[in-house]
Design brief:
mainly alpha, disordered C terminus, single chain, 8 helices
């Protein structure tokens, strides 16, 4: 009968201890959850894994076997008289064992929830990091925009300089060639005009004698070869020097005046 009652007390005390342990585990769960929230975000679950379920269950099993063994030895040695006294001690022991079991269960629940919190906090951290990254990107993009535009301007100016030098060399050859052609044409025209002018003055001096300085200057001022050819034909037909002078271009006469 005594053993039966002791077994009943043991089950009752263990049950009470489990309930108390679970209650304490829940309280510890809420208190520690608030403390560990920031810690899990920074360091993960290294501390939880180090103090996890394996160590607690291992120690609880050792304590349980040791105290049960001691209780059995003491109970067998002292008998029924000491059973009630030992029962009170066993009550505390079983309650303590129940507390340990409840705390172990609380730790397991805490680890399970901590894993869920870890993922949530990491997700929140990623969202915060992305938001900060977007803000930093926009700020730097404005700086990069100005820098890239400035670099683009410098590159464009450098390319423009290179293209300008390349084209300038091409233009130089082209313009020199054109200048040579223009110069040759102008030189030929001026040479022809001067030759016709000299011939006209010589022909007039042969026909009418030494030319007045004003007439010679007016003929020397003519630069149009076609006009000089016409005047040469007029010199053959003119009856006098004055008749020839009257045929000189009026614009030339205005210049002489």
């Amino acid at each position: 009968m005594l053993e039966e009652r002791a077994a009943q007390w043991k089950d009752e005390y263990i049950r009470q201890g489990i309930l108390i342990g679970e209650a304490r585990g829940e309280a510890m769960l809420e208190e520690r959850a608030a403390q560990w929230k920031e810690e899990y975000i920074r360091q993960g679950i290294l501390i939880g894994e180090a103090r996890g379920e394996a160590m607690l269950e291992e120690r609880a099993a050792q304590w349980k076997e040791e105290y049960i063994r001691q209780g059995i030895l003491i109970g067998e040695a002292r008998g029924e008289a000491m059973l009630e006294e030992r029962a009170a001690q066993w009550k505390e022991e079983y309650i303590r064992q129940g507390i340990l079991i409840g705390e172990a269960r609380g730790e397991a629940m805490l680890e399970e929830r901590a894993a869920q919190w870890k993922e949530e906090y990491i997700r929140q951290g990623i969202l915060i990091g992305e938001a900060r990254g977007e803000a930093m990107l926009e700020e730097r993009a404005a700086q990069w925009k100005e820098e890239y535009i400035r670099q683009g301007i410098l590159i464009g100016e450098a390319r423009g300089e290179a293209m300008l030098e390349e084209r300038a060399a091409q233009w130089k050859d082209e313009y020199v060639q054109q200048g040579v052609l223009i110069g040759e044409a102008q030189g030929e025209a001026r040479g022809e005009a001067k030759g016709l002018g000299f011939a006209l003055r010589d022909f007039l001096e042969v026909r009418f004698g030494r030319l007045p300085v004003s007439v010679a200057s007016r003929i020397a001022a003519l630069s149009d070869a076609a006009v000089l050819r016409k005047l040469t034909l007029s010199a053959y037909r003119a009856e006098s020097l004055q008749a020839f002078v009257d045929q000189l271009p009026k614009d030339d006469m205005k210049k002489m005046q």
